[in-house]
Amino acid sequence: MEGKIPFNVHVSGQQVPCSTYYKVFGDVSSSAPRVVVLHGGPGGGHEYLLSFAQLWPKHGLPVVLYDQIGCGASTHLPETAGDTNFWQEPLFIAELDNLLDHLKLRDGSGFHLLGQSWGGLLAGAFAASRPRGLQRLVLASAMASIELATQSIEMCKKQLSEDTQNTLNKYIQEGDYESPAFQEAAMVFRCTFVCRADLLPKELMEALKRMNEDKTVYGTMYGPSVFNLNGSLLGWTSIPRLPQIAVPTLVYNGEYDTSHDIGQEPYFKLIPRVRWITFSNGGHMCHLENGLAERVLKVVGEFLVGTK
């Protein structure tokens, strides 16, 4: 099942009718909690997380994926590029609330929340508000604050060869992110820390393509490159709110993840009921990587059904 949910926003004081695209796998009327999946980016779209749809046939958990506003099959708002007041956390919280209410996911057995990367930042912040119906939370390669996220990127970059680091630093300083030399060095970074699969999966390539085609969300919230954060997420943190998360929480990242352990530690220390797993040899996209994808799905599934 798929569809679009009306979601109106205010741009420059004017109400703008928008919509959120969603896709459901399984029977949302079943007695099992529904798993709502929040994608990263910001602006990455849901496709690269489609493997989590297997939670339905493997664990009997219906799965809801959606494209956050500004990307994928949801409404795009290119006229808001650079509007850092508009592209803020409350916009995405309101959209998630709207989706939960429209699909009536708070009722009955309630819902689980799984957020990956930026989606994990958002999921943690949302869970701290103790929303009605939330049963369990998965923070997948998320970060407790943007400051820790930028520190993590720098720590990863310093593990690359001196030549690769010098190339990245040269073009970052010049602000030239389109140079073939920069792109080649950035691909080395991506294959080392973002997705360690032998070949970048088509699902991830689709997300990267979408973000490149419409840079409104990522460019405004993050910046021109993963190495240059200057957008509306500057200063963002969930750390003071983490003790308010009342549901069992699974935190995971990869051994070589851009979401370094330093960004997971506040989750582990401050969330009252938490479990933390680091997948050996994994990057930021453990769920897409050779030898890890099945294990990630098994760990997440067993946690959500309460067997582990």
From TrEMBL:
Domain of life: Eukaryota
Assigned keywords, A-Z: Hydrolase
AB hydrolase-1 domain ranges (all copies): 33-290
GO cellular component, one term: membrane
GO MF terms held by the record: peptidase activity
A Pfam family: Abhydrolase_1
Protein name: Proline-specific peptidase
PANTHER family xref list: HYDROLASE, PUTATIVE (AFU_ORTHOLOGUE AFUA_2G14860)-RELATED (PTHR43798:SF33), MONOACYLGLYCEROL LIPASE (PTHR43798)
InterPro entries cross-referenced by the UniProt entry: AB_hydrolase_1 (IPR000073), AB_hydrolase_fold (IPR029058), AB_hydrolase_sf (IPR050266), Peptidase_S33 (IPR002410), Pro_imino_pep (IPR005945)
Similarity comment: Belongs to the peptidase S33 family.
GO BP, sorted A to Z: proteolysis
Entry annotated with the keyword Kinase: no
